[in-house]
Amino acid sequence: xxxxxxxxxxxxxxxxxxxxxxxxxxxxxxxxxxxxxxxxxxxxxxxxxxxxxxxxxxxxxxxxxxxxxxxxxxxxxxxxxxxxxxxxxxxxxxxxxxxxxxxxxxxxxxxxxxxxxxxxxxxxxxxxxxxxxxxxxxxxxxxxxxxxxxxxxxxxxxxxxxxxxxxxxxxxxxxxxxxxxxxxxxxxxxxxxxxxxxxxxxxxxxxxxxxxxxxxxxxxxxxxxxxxxxxxxxxxxxxxxxxxxxxxxxxxxxxxxxxxxxxxxxxxxxxxxxxxxxxxxxxxxxxxxxxxxxxxxxxxxxxxxxxxxxxxxxxxxxxxxxxxxxxxxxxxxxxxxxxxxxxxxxxxxxxxxxxxxxxxxxxxxxxxxxxxxxxxxxxxxxxxxxxxxxxxxxxxxxxxxxxxxxxxxxxxxxxxxxxxxxxxxxxxxxxxxxxxxxxxxxxxxxxxxxxxxxxxxxxxxxxxxxxxxxxxxxxxxxxxxxxxxxxxxxxxxxxxxxxxxxxxxxxxxxxxxxxxxxxxxxxxxxxxxxxxxxxxxxxxxxxxxxxxxxxxxxxxxxxxxxxxxxxxxxxxxxxxxxxxxxxxxxxxxxxxxxxxxxxxxxxxxxxxxxxxxxxxxx
Length: 618
Known about the structure:
The protein is α+β, with helices and mostly antiparallel strands. Helix content is 64%, strand content 6%. The protein has 18 helices and four strands. Strands 1, 2, 3 and 4 form a four-stranded antiparallel sheet that branches. Helix 5 (127-193) packs across helix 15 and helix 11 (393-405) packs across helix 17. The longest helix is centred in the first third of the chain and has 67 residues, at 127-193.
């Protein structure tokens, strides 16, 4: 019987196909498993790398950042951990070929965005605190934003008011000189008529000095007029959103325009008088020469002839008319001058409680993050603006974080050593010493309080009437100038009240954002005699503390400036324990691409190359 093998061949071929299919499926599953295993190994390796966060930074500031020596060190550490997985005997044979650090986000990148992210990640565990302070901060921020318009108004009224005051004083000097010239000329005429040589010489010396000095006084008046014009051009009521502030500033601009118009008319008259004073000076010198000749002559007849010529020279001098441009109340005008001088001085020592010792700590500003090239990096993927009402929760978190971990004049930061004692003040000012930072921050709070106080005064008819009356008393009677001085007096009054406010804040008390008739302390009379400085800083217990005012001002800051100054403080303080610490070498996120050579288990092929991506962040 003959055997046939068709079935065997068929089954053999079928088995080969089935085995190929099965092994292909197995290899496909193994390849997928290899990818997952490689991904798991990479993720684990990068997590191991991220575990090398700076312990000092965490202990002091609750911030997680990877401190690295170099990018090569990161790749080496990552490769070491990855090799541990790849070297295991399993169904996924592979070996590492190349590691590339494809991306890194450092603390200094994107204007400090990653520092903000770390702070926000920590502050979410303190949500009750953040919710309470954040809601209050947003409410106050709205008010401070409104106060910002009045701060612009405050600065404008103060600047234009000072310019008007200087212009008036320059005009008074010119008018005083004109009056002296006229009075001296009359005395000179009398001396010539009475032929009194000694008196004539004495009055001639005074008149000559006044005539020679007159052009300089006119030039000073012209210079002050140009300064007022420049100051007035800087003011723009269209930039203010608040209607009251915009309307008041528009009124101030119109008033200054009227003052400028009137001053230009006066200047034109003064410039004409300059020509007259030159002619008068020539006649005076001619009379003096004749007098000198007369004193040497011995002939009496010649002497009488010379005196006639001298009298003729004096009578030919043109009369320069002046107006009485002095203030109606010279005592109040002098008191206002003294008040201006006081507010131009440094007020820090006056504002601090008696016996307060100011920290003398100072640092070098060389090599700090805020002075590095990263500070000038404008490339940022963070689209958030600095708008107050549009502030993101992250910015609220940062603002709540600052008072917790940075000290101020009235808030110690636990027992942790700090290079600067007034750290919140440094965030605002960025100066090298505690004293400079405190001075600058106190001035910012003063200006903020002055702007808020000015809003109250503008809405108080009684106090505006008092300011108008004082302006009429200290001005020279020109109505537009009186109106400008009235605004200026209101700014001085608001600033005087702000001095008391800040004095109260620095004593550890509270001051409300908005004043009422009941909380207003300074009267105009006490402002002028400066007795308001003797008042003690007492408050009703309502409002915000000094530290909270600093928080509001920090909230209004440019976020890039604030972030880099925070990095300055962090770097200084961590270096007290770790001298080589640098925020530039602190990474928040790393991205690594690894080229790996793998082998198929059931295919007779050479190694094939694969790339795996891994990223780690805090």
